[in-house]
Write a structure and sequence with these properties.
- By secondary structure, the protein is of the alpha+beta class.
- It has 5 domains: about 240 residues, Rossmann fold, CATH 3.40.50.620; about 140 residues, Rossmann fold, CATH 3.40.50.620; about 190 residues, Isoleucyl-tRNA Synthetase, domain 2 (Alpha-Beta Complex), CATH 3.90.740; about 160 residues, Isoleucyl-tRNA Synthetase, Domain 1 (Orthogonal Bundle), CATH 1.10.730.10; about 60 residues, Ubiquitin-like (UB roll), CATH 3.10.20.590.
- Helix content is about 40%, strand content about 20%.
- It contains 30 helices and 34 strands.
- The strands form 10 sheets. Strands 10, 11, 12, 13, 14, 15 and 18 form a 7-stranded mixed beta sheet that branches. It has a 4-stranded parallel beta sheet with strand order 2-1-26-27, covered by helices on one side. A 4-stranded antiparallel beta sheet has the order 6-5-9-19.
- Strand 13 and strand 14 form a beta hairpin.
- Helix 2 packs across helix 27 and helix 21 packs antiparallel against helix 26.
- It binds one RNA strand through helix 8, strand 11, strand 15, helix 12 and strand 30.
Length: about 850
RNA sequence: GCCCGAGUGGCGGAACAGGUAGACGCAACGGACUUAAAAUCCGUUGAGGUUUUGACCUCGUGCCAGUUCGAUUCUGGCCUCGGGCACCA
């Protein structure tokens, strides 16, 4: 063949890998044949694979691509392994970005959201994601948020939803309140601007009532959830054990008791002063008619001017002042001066503390500044120390503690609590840092809270039959700090369902995290009209077997969804306590060491990659880039590498197809009498050295890929194993001439290679599969199995060490008896050289691994 | 400050029960093909040294110790980075 002809052939379209063409083609075919769905039938075991659903912001970003590719591969492999797989998709469609964009652009949030959902869906299909597209859910549709509202009413009935006045987080940029979970180190989770405090009446879900169960049920998640995520949640819930101790105010006329919370009741004898939070309601009472009033008010004013962030920072100087009053230490009857100070917060514990400067760093610092006495009551060695240079916060032996002297502080803690309880002076208490979940939002684009306020009847829940409370379309939703719905006459004005009089609707909408706290249940019966979900479907599919999504939701969505599930369990609506059995947090994709962000202009969109190289390259690269749970940096040359591999795969398979066409198995079969099967050939020793190596590699690869994907979520190593197989197949093709090639081996290895790759790169494998003459989709072929006998090496490289250092190695039969291994090692010239004339002290033989000769 | 997690070539990473450190890929270099380039294929690639050119030796997984015949892996201490909590009593 001359050069021109060869060139011509290379340029023929069916010869070279054209990602765009084949991907568009197969997307069309799959749409028609329903290959996207992984549901099969209920005779098979079920498996529910779920990725956190997206907020429809337009086209998916790289984080989405990573999240969904991981989920897609897992879901596809499980389906091929014979599971009935639920792998749904939907859109978390309420939320601020659409509303903010609307304020700028004038496009209604509903319209932009729906347009974005269409973009998103198109992109997901373009990337080859195997979702139940017919069962999508969209949280901003009335047939979904009707049930979000239904759940609100359920919580209300159960006494778990309440409106209360509280000091709440206020984001001035978003013009709404925020839940505690949505404030990240003093800043708004969404817009990053500083969060201030306001006292407002707001709706809360009482998640605090579930604090202990959220902790206890973590034992159901151990093994399925990464420990670090559970640790984050534990920290967030912030359980601490201690005691409430009642201090009586020294007062002739009134009997005022101020309780405090402490985790160190064993230090009660060390109390030398007492602090109440400056905004504590008792402060005014205490200083009334007192000479100290003016000074206390002055200091209080200074403290209240400090922002919450300032005040809760350890950097800020501690300030406070004496109130002129005293409390009585219930244990020893001592008179203790009462102070106010900026480091005592009203929100935590009881808003007042007993101060023990000898054993608390903060109290120590304060005492030093204001010359308050320090009394040591816990000593590391049981002796009293002249002057403490700093607070001793560890355990020790109790001193200066009356009848408790000489007792270990851990023991003393229990004894003092018992004493307090017996004498009605206090009690054992558990405190949590977790706060109730604030779900009201003063914004338009959310599910309206289904509550009516009536002058006669008070707060009245909207009757179930009147749901959904529809979100009106025509509303002026410019943020004013008031809910936009309050300006909508048609929305606000209603009739009280109880007395029929004119009444007004609640105008706040719900936090979108409420919508996402139950969506995984809706997926089980997305079109059900009688209830949020059909019980039998939820019983069948739930809980989610594998959940995948970003760890940034550890203290938000993931804790809310767990809470919701427990409430539904208590209501008898579900029979499981935890929604997600296993959770895998994928890492983020950075660019240039920084988070991709529009403002920084360092963004690579999935569409750029699939438009240039194809979706298969995108998927392959995003899995190969590094361990799925680690933060990775985007690399353009890495993408090139992935693309190159697909080209290499393409050429290999196309060449093998050609070869197989020329050398049909039927032809070969005529020449032998035995049934031809590669495994038989292998077992019968009919394969040549390289053939045997290739066949073994094939089985080893099946084993490794299966385990890496399903047991370890280790996609990068699974792919590298497949690359090794491809390299070996190339080597075989290059080394062995066509007339000597094993037809069966080529056929089997090519087919299985494609099947192994098909969940990762669904398009190219489908195309090559069809080119092999297959009628059915590769995505319906069952997952290959491996044979341990074949996968097992017959030779292993045994390491010969002298004094732990590698000196020689030799390929020896697997499972060689230790004595023989030892003999082999001692026969090695190199080993003998290193031993020389020295005495052998010890010989260590590890079967199938090594021999180590220890010499003096 | 407290609690987690991680530190391995020029780079991303592998080594999944304490046993060959650097799989696979990127980048770089050399070669083949080509008039040339691209693409492709093959090879080399941790550092240092010895060298009869076949190979051989020493060091090397953040740092310092320890346990062990043997440590990237286990233990203790330290350093750096990332994350969580944080005047939380």
């Amino acid at each position: 063949m001359d050069r021109m002809e060869r060139k011509k052939e290379e340029f023929q379209s069916d010869e070279s890998y054209n990602a765009k063409e084949i991907e568009e083609k197969w997307a069309r075919v799959w749409e028609k044949t329903g290959v996207y769905s992984l549901k099969s039938d209920r005779s098979k075991p079920k498996y529910y694979v779920l990725e956190m659903f997206p907020y429809p912001s337009g086209e998916p970003h790289m984080g989405h691509a990573r999240n969904y590719t991981i989920g897609d591969v897992v879901a596809r492999v499980l389906a091929r392994k014979g599971y009935n797989v639920l792998h749904p998709i939907g859109y978390d469609a309420f939320g601020l970005p659409a509303e903010n964009a609307a304020i700028k652009s004038g496009i209604h949030p509903k319209d932009s959201t729906m347009a974005n959902i269409n973009k998103m869906r198109k992109a997901l299909k373009r990337m080859g994601m195997s979702y139940e597209f017919a069962d999508e859910i969209i949280t901003c549709e009335p047939d979904y948020y009707k049930w979000t509202q239904w759940f609100f009413l359920l919580f209300y009935k159960m006494g778990l939803a309440e409106k209360k006045r509280a000091k709440v987080n206020w984001c001035n940029s978003c013009q709404t309140v925020l839940a505690n979970e949505q404030v990240i180190s003093g800043r708004c989770e969404r817009c990053d601007s500083e969060v201030t405090k306001k006292v407002l009446a707001q709706w809360f879900f009482k998640i605090t009532e579930y604090a202990q169960r959220l902790l206890d049920d973590m034992k159901l998640l151990e093994g399925g959830w990464p420990e670090r995520v559970l640790t984050i949640q534990r920290n967030w819930i912030g359980r601490s054990e201690g005691a409430i101790v009642n201090f009586r105010l020294l007062d002739d006329s009134k009997d005022i008791v101020i309780p405090i919370f402490t985790t160190r009741p064993d230090t009660l004898y060390g109390v030398t002063f007492f602090i109440i939070a400056p905004e504590h309601p008792l402060v005014d009472e205490i200083v009334k008619d007192s000479d100290y009033r003016k000074e206390v008010e002055r200091v209080k004013e200074i403290i209240l001017k400090q922002s919450d962030i300032e005040r809760s920072s350890t950097e800020v100087e501690k300030i406070g002042c004496f109130t002129g009053r005293y409390v009585i230490n219930p244990l020893n009857g001592e008179k203790v001066p009462v102070w106010i100070a900026n480091y005592v917060l009203l929100e935590y514990g009881t808003g007042a503390i007993m101060a023990v400067p000898a054993h608390d760093e903060r109290d120590f610092e304060f005492a030093q500044k204001y010359n308050i006495p320090v009394r040591e009551v816990i000593s590391p060695d049981g002796k009293e120390h002249e002057k403490l240079a700093k607070a001793y916060v560890d355990e020790g032996i109790m001193i200066n503690s009356g009848i408790f002297n000489g007792i270990n502080s851990v023991e003393g803690r229990k004894k003092i609590v018992s004493y307090l309880e017996e004498n009605n002076l206090g009690k054992f208490t558990i405190n949590y840092k977790l706060k109730d979940w604030l779900i009201s939002r003063q914004r338009y684009w959310g599910a309206p809270i289904p509550i009516i306020y009536c002058d006669n009847c008070g707060t009245v829940p909207v009757p179930e039959k009147d749901l959904p409370v529809l979100l009106p379309y025509n509303v002026d939703f410019r943020p004013t700090g008031m809910s936009p719905l309050s300006y909508s006459e048609e929305f606000v004005n209603t009739i009280c369902p109880e007395c029929g009089q004119k009444a007004k609707r609640e105008t706040d909408t719900m936090d979108t995290f409420v919508c996402s706290s139950w969506y995984f249940l809706r997926y089980c019966s997305p079109h059900y009209e009688k209830a949020p979900f059909e019980r039998s479907e939820v019983d069948y599919w739930m809980p989610v077997d594998q959940y995948i999504g970003g760890i940034e939701h550890a203290t938000m969505h993931l804790i809310y969804a767990r809470f919701f599930t427990k409430v539904l369990y208590d209501a008898g609506l579900v029979n499981f306590k935890e929604p997600f059995i296993k959770y895998f947090p994928h890492g983020v994709v950075n660019l240039g060491g920084q988070k991709m962000s529009k403002s920084k202009g360092n963004i690579v969109n999935p569409s750029q990659i699939y438009n240039k190289y194809g979706a298969d390259t995108l998927r392959l690269y995003i899995l190969f880039i590094g361990p799925a749970d680690s933060i990775v940096d985007w690399s353009d040359s890495g993408v090139e590498g992935a693309y190159r591999f697909l080209g290499r795969l393409w050429r290999l398979v196309v060449a093998n197809i050609k070869f197989l066409q020329k050398n049909s198995i039927e032809e070969k079969c005529k020449s032998t009498s035995v049934v031809l099967d590669c495994k038989n050939q292998f077992m019968n020793g009919e394969l040549g050295k390289l053939e045997k190596e290739l066949y073994r590699k094939l089985h080893q690869t099946i084993k490794k890929v299966t385990q890496d994907v399903l047991d370890r979520f280790s996609f990068n190593t699974a792919i590298s194993a497949i690359m090794e197989l491809v390299n070996l197949m190339y080597k075989y093709n290059d080394t062995v001439s066509d007339d000597k090639k094993n037809v069966l081996l080529i056929k089997e290895s090519t087919e299985k290679l494609l099947v192994l790759l098909s969940p990762i790169v669904p398009f190219i494998t489908e195309e090559l599969w069809s080119r092999m003459g297959k009628q059915d989709s590769i995505h319906r072929v069952s997952w290959p199995t491996y044979d341990e006998e074949v996968a097992k090496e017959e030779l292993v490289t045994i390491i010969f060490q002298v004094n732990g250092k590698l000196r020689d190695k030799k390929d020896l039969p697997v499972d060689m008896p230790p004595e023989e291994m030892e003999k082999e090692a001692l026969n090695s010239e190199k080993v003998r050289k290193f031993i020389g004339s020295r005495e052998i002290v010890k010989k260590i033989v590890v079967p199938n691994k090594l021999v180590n000769i220890v010499i003096k």
